[in-house]
Specification:
Keywords: Glycoprotein, Hydrolase, Secreted, Signal. One of its GO terms (cellular component) is extracellular region. Residues 71-202 form the Purple acid phosphatase Fn3-like domain. The structure is a single chain. This protein is of the alpha+beta class and 618 residues long. The protein has 2 domains: 40-198, no CATH class; 206-614, 4-Layer Sandwich (Purple Acid Phosphatase, chain A, domain 2). 12% of the residues lie in helices and 29% in strands. The protein contains 9 helices and 31 strands. The protein has helices spanning 13-18, 40-45, 109-113, 331-342, 364-377, 388-391, 411-416, 452-462, 493-505, and strands at residues 9-11, 60-63, 73-83, 91-95, 130-133, 146-151, 157-171, 178-183, 190-194, 207-213, 221-227, 234-237, 241-244, 246-248, 275-281, 306-311, 349-353, 381-385, 429-433, 436-440, 471-475, 510-513, 519-526, 529-532, 535-536, 542-545, 553-557, 576-580, 584-590, 594-601, 607-614.
Amino acid sequence: MARLLLLLVLIGGICAAAAASSPLLPAAETMRVSFAGKSEFRTVNRKPLGTCLDPSPYLEISVSTGGAPLPDEAFLNVTVSGVRRPDRSHWLAMITPSNSSVLGCPLNGVNYIETGDLASLPLLCHYPVKAQYLTSDPGYLGCKASACQKRRASGTCKVRTCAATLAFHVINFRTDVEFVLFSGGFATPCVLKRSGALPFANPAKPLHGHLSSVDSKATSMRLTWVSGDARPQQVQYGTGKTATSVATTFTHKDMCSVAVLPSPAKDFGWHDPGYIHSALMTGLQPSQSYNYRYGRTPPAAGSGELSFVVFGDMGKAPLDPSVEHYIQPGSTSVAKAVAAEMQTGKVDSIFHIGDISYATGFLVEWDFFLHLITPLASQVSYMTAIGNHERDYAGSGSVYPTPDSGGECGVPYESYFPMPASGRDKPWYSIEQGSVHFVVMSTEHEWSEKSEQYNWMEMDLSSVDRSRTPWVIFIGHRPMYSSSSGIPPSVDPNFVSSVEPLLLNHKVDLVFFGHVHNYERTCAVYQGNCKGMPKKDAKGVDTYDNSNYAAPVHAVVGAGGFNLDGFPKIGLHSWSLSRISEFGYARVHATKTDMLVQFVNSNTSAVQDQFRIVKGAR
């Protein structure tokens, strides 16, 4: 495969933002300041602060930056000192922006619960980005770090205080940060001390660049990034080519809500997203690698080979001991494993098929997620499908009126991940890479027969040129087959009865779904019956022969990070051939006649299941 060295740098507004010698003085209308939306519910919910139990006059909060502005990423040591009586109820919050409310709102637990997060988290009037009890420092309760604040005439210590040092991972949120010390635990918080606002050195800096494909020719790529500056920025690539960005944003007024209770996105969890920039790079060549930060174009439609990675339900997890909203414990291991996979140079693209960040209305969590995937998405095409935690909310037009998106209703998802879809809030599309035609649907939008999406799927599947792309892979979020039970059920029989016949009629070879947090593979299945079974090849690998097509093979790959789902020990279905409850992803290599699929354990790199689908000459 040919290699092309390409320098890709962000210039213009980016260079201005990065220049250390001149202060950043953007025009007032181009910069965003984040204020949380304030609702009547918050006013009713607010709890007056009582008298704190330790009003020590010696309390101090010091941050390891030494007073310097915050960098784009840092692991900060934050020291709380001057505590006279260490208590298990003492905790430290990191809030952004610094003007966020730190009053107690005891009813705000419902904001976490409605999105499915049942963890014990702080009940402030605005969501704190991170929180840690001071007992994270194992020496705190025993006052291992002490200082004498006042001495007697004899020289002995009269007033001794204690300290704790905690580590916080901070990334550039564009808005300033403040550390606030509380007593009373998460449920009954009372402010003891504030650090004062800590600004970022470069709030306008472009960050979290990620690539996506725009068509099947692989001669153009879209680069999307986040910045605090609305002014157009440029991408320089190739031999002097440039592309100018278009900046968009959204506000809390764009979020969904209901009258009785404001959604997290509308109120409690709102954080200003800054500006999302997108630039289209044209005149590229398929299957080329790009040095520097941004990356590699996928193979053009009809070319001989394609290697891609697919997973669902990733989210993010803190890189420090903090608690945050909706932690997905396997997300970091999967991200690291895919990054290692990419170092081989054998990954052309990535498909993340729903439940992307699990921000679910806590908007600052999108920044953490984008930071997590930057090493992956900045190098190859990062294609996505929408899931329930991006789209669903009551009254929003979703098929499922659950509060799973926390009021986001797909707006942040479509802003951060512009896919080659037909229009706003129509996040279905198809794209061809190498020998594969991908059909990416939304299980959250209407899919019943004669609906707009159904008609599109039927038209798209009817138009596939099998001489150019012999493989058809169908992708969505909610599965048609899963052995795992849940409340509500993971499989909607109405969805299956409406859409499954399309897959059979148009001879779809392979189907990938997420939503259920494990890995499961089926036989060639239709209407719950095995229409074809794999046979072992010479290496003992299960092989489906689609030269005599029987039905699609389904694979659930929702093991990308969220807490794993198990499998029943009895009553298993005959169509279920492989079941693995481990974090991981699927890697796929497709030629014109052979497709190899392997499920990789992200913690061990072991291949725990593999199968082939073959057709034509071998």
